Input
Amino acid sequence: MSDIGALLPHAGDSVLIERVVDSNDREIRVATTLHRSVDNPLRRHGRLGAVHLVEFAAQAMALHGALLDQAAGRAPRAALLVSVRDLVLGCEYLEKLEGELEIVASVLLVNVQSWQYAFSVRHAGREIASGRIAAMANS
Output
């Protein structure tokens, strides 16, 4: 498996995904404990709001795309997050959640210009977020 930080357009503490659990052509399953990190750049006043799970999911989506690009012999393509739809949050804050978050991002539509994924985030077997995200190629 490739270095996650090398596949994302993020650097240092901005990389929120720690490991790939599983990946295929249609979805990626990743895990992380970085919601608990005091150095998480999304924290404000020591708290990490659940709305930031969208960024965790967007990074899972970007990682999936980069892995697909890599498998096809292409360099990872940068994209801009353009929409979030049907967002459902099952908690308010994340920093006190023990253990890992598991994020699943599933392809809805992918072409050379844009990507659309459905996502869900689980903690301790319970879904704490779900929705759809879309990104467009940054060209």
Notes: Helices lie at 4-7, 53-71. The mean pLDDT is 92. The chain is about 15% helix and 40% strand. The CA atoms of residues 90 and 128 lie 4 Å apart.
